[in-house]
């Protein structure tokens, strides 16, 4: 009778186990980024120190109390290097526990609070959709996990169906928001030509990107049409009948795998894929597992399928649903608005957000290249040496790397300078100051240091226009000079020091 009940009742025990472990994996990557890059980005001697940022926010809002509500973060207590490091390591180790299958609601609550705290002090380096998406999906995971015991098949804490529905609602907003922002934005999305440019001009191309770019125009148009099917039509299927939901969930996952193969978009596509797992129930998942594993899992499931939610847990999930419903009003209004905002939050805890990507696509790729020299004076014969970054295009003979779901945040941010030069000046001036001083933490963000013995006397930043070299070429890129972003500056440069004071950048 138990097997019969299992076969005729759709359950979500395996769905929960897989989804929570996958969220744990994303947390592992996210906190590893903080462990390795956090000190250089937001440490006390970093490019944009978190403590200095919090002081400025409190000054602008008139009090720390008002600032703490506007920008919730555990680091209001202390934003010291020790506190930031402890938070990153605690999150990393806790995420490993969740990945191993021993996550519960309190542990996932700690991970959510920690990552929200880092997101709110990371400033421009943490102002992206995948960070708020991890905050939102991580918050839902608190209610999806077993209440206390870290057991995936704890009969006292069956997976709440209402949280499955909320994950599907999140998947809908991710995909539909991305689809609408494209249809309302760049006309190349409606004439189906955007992908003829995207693979070459995206922030961090991958090793397969040159091959995608070299495909014929009909291939790009077909890919763009598939994009619209998955992002505009398929999201509605996540609320449809079981078979339709399965097809739409599979389409979303296949689409994310294609994006993962064609470029490096941090853990955005990985996390979207994880959220799409909510479209599948246990019976669907068992069909794709190896026979022996499927048999063992069926035996486990037969013992818990009749488990029921406690009243407390039902009440907590019902309250969560009400909160999400109320907070969804602004994102829904944004979706319907012709002035749709991309990747926006409407409340301080990032519980329900709006998402979107590539509303416009660059037709040409411009990169800013940082160069230094040890020369005492500058003339046309001055020898400039380039700073190479781990994954950002630089030397023309170095091919794109594949790093997703890991993410080099400085590489990514440099891509935006040609698009918004003035908006990025503050942090870039701080970076330049660190390079002129030979700051070891910031230099660790680079692939190499051409001035290992002593810092350069001058730093400059120049623009280059990049494009993929023709197939069969020895070089991967071709580039040509395209102007100057930052003229040569030194620590003795009065205008440069004045600019640092104007931007309130400390040494």
**Overall pLDDT:** 93
Shape field? globular
Total strand count, please? 6
- Rg value: 24 Å
Structure annotation, total helices: 21
Q: State the order of secondary-structure elements, H for helix, E for strand.
A: HHHHHHHHHHHHHHHHHEEEEHHHEEH
Uncertain spans = 1-8
Cα(first) to Cα(last) distance is 72 Å
The largest β sheet comes out as: 4 strands, antiparallel
Strand content: 5-15%
Instruction: List the strand order in the largest sheet.
Output: 4-3-5-6
Helix content: 40-55%
Secondary structure category: alpha+beta
Question: Could you explain how this protein is built, in words?
Answer:
This protein is an alpha+beta fold and 507 residues long. Helices cover 53% and strands 8% of the residues. The protein has a four-stranded antiparallel beta sheet with strand order 4-3-5-6. A two-stranded antiparallel ribbon has the order 1-2. The radius of gyration is 24 Å and the shape is globular.
Name the descriptors.
507 residues; alpha+beta; four-stranded antiparallel beta sheet; two-stranded antiparallel ribbon; 21 helices; 6 strands; globular; disordered N terminus
Secondary-structure map with pairings?
Elements: H1 2-8, H2 13-42, H3 50-61, H4 64-70, H5 81-99, H6 105-121, H7 129-144, H8 161-184, H9 195-201, H10 209-213, H11 217-237, H12 242-262, H13 268-276, H14 282-287, H15 291-302, H16 311-327, H17 329-336, E1 344-345, E2 353-354, E3 365-373, E4 385-386, H18 409-415, H19 425-436, H20 440-443, E5 458-468, E6 477-489, H21 494-502
